[in-house]
Design a protein that fits this description.
about 160 residues, 5 helices, binds magnesium ion, globular, alpha/beta, Rossmann fold, GTPase Der, single chain
Amino acid sequence: MSIVAIVGRPNVGKSTLFNRLIQRREAITDAVSGVTRDRHYGKSDWNGKEFSVIDTGGYVVGSDDVFEAEIDHQVELAIDEADVIVFMVDAECGITGMDEDVAKLLRKVKKPVILAVNKVDNPQREQDAYEFYNLGLSEYFTLSSTSGSGTGDLLDRIVELL
Ligand code: GDP
Ligand code: MG
């Protein structure tokens, strides 16, 4: 089955989207390698296509902190495993240094990467979201994981790429 990984720094809304995508409570926790933060797997389907979803911990590049290194490792695993990578950022915060570090790595990944600008809850945020073009990733969607707006278009594109 094809795998979709959701990556991005902490608090952008990855788990909120994940929970929305899997709907059914099929998430399982991966205790392998005793990682400090869990990876969650779930099953989803859209337009008749089934796929697995991985929700990852945050991603911090170039940190000496062991905890952050573990998270980093988990995301690298997700990148290896995934057929499509959803890179989530937060329109409320704008671009952070951490987003730029992740983007730099993802620009080198030879797999489809979709930039998902989350927390676009109102028209003003839709305007603010343009700045994320500066991350240099071609595919760009805006959404609100809490309300669900924009998730349909994102899913249409994800399953097209599977
Ligand atoms: P993660 O660390 O990337 O997994 O982020 P979470 O899914 O745990 O969400 C972090 C916080 O952002 C929570 O308080 C969510 O309720 C909030 N959040 C997630 N999606 C949205 C959204 O679309 N709009 C707003 N306003 N808040 C959101
Ligand atoms: Mg989370």
